[in-house]
Here is the input.
Amino acid sequence: MAEKEIKGIQKFFEEFKAFAMRGNVLDMAVGVVVGSAFTAIVNSLVGDIISPLIGLFFNADFSDVVIQIGDVGIGIGSFLNAIINFLIVAFVLFVVLKAFNALFNKKKAEEEAPAEPTTKVCPYCQSEISIKAVRCPHCTSKLEGFPEIHD
Here is the structure.
């Protein structure tokens, strides 16, 4: 191999390493792993708890419904089952995420209580000064709304 080709390959792998080690890619990889674990939980919830409860009221298994065209059978029932399962999973996921977000946003709102301001802007020189200032330390203007302090 020519030296130029080796340097090109090395540069390619260095770029790939820089790409793979960026935070976004690692965060995405963690998200995919956690997402697949969460998918197993949601699928179990839907398959083991919610679908049997729905089955008490409705016969939700359409897998035997087939449209026969000549020798070809179109499994419309399996497709309907997939749509129903998707809607159930999407609804359960929506409810779980809505509850999680409500809990998270409640904690976040409590943590982010706005702090009272400690500074203000002088209306004359536009300098930032203490909120308690009676006179501006920069332009010495008397600020309105404060009584003159005499010693």
Q: What stands out?
A: The mean pLDDT is 79. The first strand starts at residue 67 and ends at 69. DSSP finds three helices and four strands in the chain.
